[in-house]
Amino acid sequence: MSLYKNCLILLAINIFSPVSGDGVNGTAPDTTDKRTQSPSLSPPVVAAAELNSANIKPDLDSLFPLSLLSSFPEDPEVSDYCSELLHIFGQRYVACVSCLVPAARPVKVCQNCYSSYGSLANIYRNISGTLGPANVSCKDNLLRSDRLMLVNLLYINLEDVWSKSNCKQCITKEFQSLTNDTLYFMAMLNQTRTCFEKYPQGNHSEQCKNCNSSYKGLNELYSRMEKNQSLCIDIEDAMNMTRRQWTNFNCTVAREETVPIIAVSSFMLFLPIIFYLSSFLHSEQKKRKLIHPKRAKSYSSLTNIQDKLN
Question: Is the pTM of this model over 0.70?
């Protein structure tokens, strides 16, 4: 009722101002005889009738100030404890987004923003799970009180970014630090890139020769981490950039693992020749064995004939 009375007072004040003065709306003509006016009519009603007869429309901005229109009553269901949690959530959400945007390229989402995301996840758990003073729960008031559920929606968006980045593979539990495998990979990556930057542009032969061992070790470490499913988006992006950089060097250094491949390929190439040669030799030897008994038999029969003739 107080709000309604305030609106009526403001309406009367703003109506009388253009009627009595020389404002932008003009002065309404006095078409009514003051002696015929009913004494029971209040001034606002008379002023409104005069404006209607003069076809004068009052300014809505002056009738309803912005401060009055934008003031909504506070939600009595939200306690001071829940309001404080909501304020902290907003601060940590802004801090997390401010960290993620600069970490987009090159991708350093996990290694740069795990602390801010961990703080945001912690305050969200407080809102959705734990009870505050006097067993106050903020879950229903802050997360489920309306159709939009803005707090929950905002957190789910960042949680989706964190999940797609596989950051949990590179971060320890409770968001304390990077894992040992991640730190070791970053150290080898810095060593390899330092070797790349050591030589002037265009001198790719020196880069290929002197940086081959460090690049090979980095590749082997990446393969092991990929097999163990301990990769996050930071490591994947860093390795892709390093491989593209190495490819631009056009390195043709022979790898040690190609030696057994060449040996096996050579053996497979000569295997048919060895097979056919051994088959040929074996067949000739078998023919000799088949012929030998016939010669022995003919000789013995000839000896017997000679003996009989004698």
Answer: no
